[in-house]
Amino acid sequence: MSKVILQIDGNNFYASCEQMIDPSIRGKALVVLSNNDGCIIARSSEARKMGIPMGQPYFKLKNKLTQLNINVRSSNYELYGDISNRLMQLLKKNCEELEIYSIDEAFGTIKRPKEKCLYKWGKDLRALVYQNIGIPISIGIGETKVLSKISNHLAKKIQNKSGIFDIGIIVNKDPYLNQIKVDKVWGIGKRMSIWLKSKGITSALELRDMSSNQIKEQYGVVGLRTQSELKGNICIPIKETSLDRKQICISRSFSYPIDSLEELNQVIIKFVLIASAKLRKYNKLSSAITVFTTTNTHSKEFYKSESTEKIEIPTSDSRIMIKKSLGLTKKIFKPYRNLKKAGVILHKLQSNKYTQKLLFNEKIIQNEFNQDRLNYIIDEINNRSDRDIINWGSSIIEKEWGPRREKLSSIKTTDIESIPIIYAN
Amino acid sequence: MDSRNSYSSLKKSLSKLLIPLVKDTISAGFPSPAEDYIELGIDLNKYLIKNPISTFFLRVSGNSMNNAGIYNNDLLIIDRSINPNPGHIVVALLDGEFTLKRLIKKQNNYYLKADKENYPAINLYEYIDIQIWGVAIYSIHELQKSKI
Prior knowledge:
- The structure holds 2 protein chains of 2 kinds.
- Chain A is of the alpha+beta class.
- Chain B is an alpha+beta fold.
- Chain B is 16% helix and 31% strand.
- Chain B is built from 3 helices and 7 strands; from the N terminus they run αααβββββββ.
- Chain B is globular.
């Protein structure tokens, strides 16, 4: 039994998540917009067939989308994160190793029973994922990461659109590699593909068979690695990932609209405190923070805004987070708007065990330690009680803004107030 | 000073304060037979949700399933990993809407039926686009707010 590499991804992932949870848009053309409704970041296959391009600014296509009766959704990261987490857990159970590559994509390994095609295995996994989670996936199987990625590409194109392709079982891969354009090969960036094309290399097959010396000269070991993987030699191993969270998002809808910066600040600080306590609970540090807010989606003067700031030294300190977030709320706040919802996202989470500290700066290290200790003690005291006994001065809220009890426009699987309604009339 | 080491030793010393009280107080005399069980408790999540990966919640609207013990505004727990069988209460997709019905089988035909009189059964073979979305396993009914 030899080990093969799998590359698995959710088809049109964001669009599939939306369609999974909202039956009214199943099988219909749908696009999902980026944060702030900036541009199109996902399309259902129906929208794709209608020629709606990826990455286009929304305002440019707004009329066209309305004319073509295409459904539009703002991105709903709470939902995508939850579905992704379920998907990865299920994949982890069914593969030997699993490397989570992005929200909708993973590499895995499995043993191949002696010279047996894994088509049936893939078909079963696909059915299992669809039954349990309700989203379609594609599976590419090959000897290396680069080949499995190509395989996944082929899975979407051929094999009766079954969503599975196993290039590992094919002895003469040439006709398949010939179909793959060189810029579609994993690891080949834009610049490298331009260089390759200038050398007359346009397909994955030609890349595999070109002179290694030429690649090495121009792109060193990195370029050579991709070529070697195309030949079937493992150069990029699977890095097993724990099912750790990559970001923490705390957001709520308000029971009454907020229209002052002061109130928005208080709410955001509350979220920051919840989020940073979570960070500490999971022994994580964050190196970027986003604050966002929206008015009611249905209101005429719909307003949505967000802002992100990097945190130079990754931290879980509530005080640093509060300070950063206050700068951000100032940026996103607009007077005379009735804000209905706001939230905080902490990104780029990393373990607090392996952190880059500043060298030669004893004072900062000492400070950091004291902050850790302060935060930790507050967590400890608050954890022992049902409510927060100790609060940061800036977080004391006078009015009760808690979640509203209306049906929210966006459906989520992570928020009891936003779960879908089922009619039993 | 290595901040990491002192941080973890601080953590240790704090967590030492969290030793369960019961264990310390029953040191004289017989060991309490209850001691082995003190960490047990009822976790509804564990009890109600067998397969977290495939479990979803939905909110019920309507009264057509009252006879099955499912009321308006109940919280429904759905497990998608269960294969739907006759007798199961299922969430079906019909005309682009979730609908809650009981799956029944009569003379080799499958039907969806509301648990209420005068509600016609839906013959699944008459529909082209129908899908069973999941099987309902529990309905949580808030007694204080019952509106029937």
